[in-house]
Design brief:
The chain has helices at about 5-25, 85-90, 105-115, 155-160, 185-210; strands spanning about 35, 45-50, 65-70, 100-105, 120-125, 140-145, 170-175, 180-185. It has about 220 residues and is an alpha+beta fold. Bound molecules: zinc ion (ZN).
Length: about 220
């Protein structure tokens, strides 16, 4: 792993993404976490992930660590990986997941609580849906699963894994009263998915609060 010379480049990408999400207002009070899958030559490292408890406004590559498939820090890092690392590792066991991003926006926290009993939110009719991989029309229905929150990450990972759709496009889920997880084949895809879902959540929140503007 020490010979994996590209690590700094991946760590910079993760740090840039964390600061970008913080600027958007999606990472309050040192919360949220971000990771990118490392190439096979980095094995046994699986991904580079933000360390726990760091303010995302100023996070740099020094606060991004590599972990193996069990979530253990590598390179002798004394930093702890995010507490939610098991969820990232669970997602990296799926095909075509190259980056995992997790945010704590107000819209995600509010709407996930309102949809916890139903188990999902549905979005339809929004042009920005086309920003999601394999979605080509605005007039389709996209379901965003909602799962109960828990501090037991092992339980949460085991609960969510079999409940994520495999056949239909699925690029994210909500944890009730907590926040949003998204992923993508690449970091660029994952960032686009994050922007799409945060935008859709804001639209949904506005509509539920104020309704559609007169004449819309
Ligand atoms: Zn969280």
């Amino acid at each position: 792993m020490d010979t994996f010379r590209d690590f700094k480049r991946y760590a910079d990408q993760v740090a840039d993404t964390a600061r970008w999400a913080a600027r958007k207002g999606w990472a309050p009070a040192t919360s949220t976490n971000y990771s990118v899958r490392l190439p096979v030559e980095a094995a046994p490292a699986i991904c580079a992930i933000t360390a726990s408890g760091i303010d995302k406004d100023h996070l740099d590559s020094e606060s991004v660590i590599t972990i193996d498939g069990e979530g253990r820090p590598m390179n002798g890092s004394r930093l702890r990986p995010s507490a939610e690392t098991p969820l990232h590792l669970m997602l990296y066991r799926r095909a075509n997941v190259g980056a995992v991003l997790h945010t704590h926006s107000i819209a995600a926290a509010l709407l996930s609580r309102s949809a916890e009993a139903t188990g999902f939110l549905t979005f339809s009719g929004w042009e920005l849906l086309k920003g999601l991989e394999r979605i080509e029309r605005h007039d389709c229905e996209v379901r965003l699963p909602v799962f109960p929150n828990s501090q037991d990450m092992a339980w949460l990972s085991a609960h969510i894994k079999p409940r994520l759709p495999e056949a239909e496009p699925c690029h994210g889920f909500l944890l009730a009263g907590h926040g949003l997880y998204v992923w993508g084949k690449t970091l660029v895809d994952a960032k686009r998915h994050l922007e799409v879902f945060e935008y859709l959540l804001q639209c949904e929140r506005e509509v539920r609060t104020h309704g559609y503007p007169a004449g819309a």
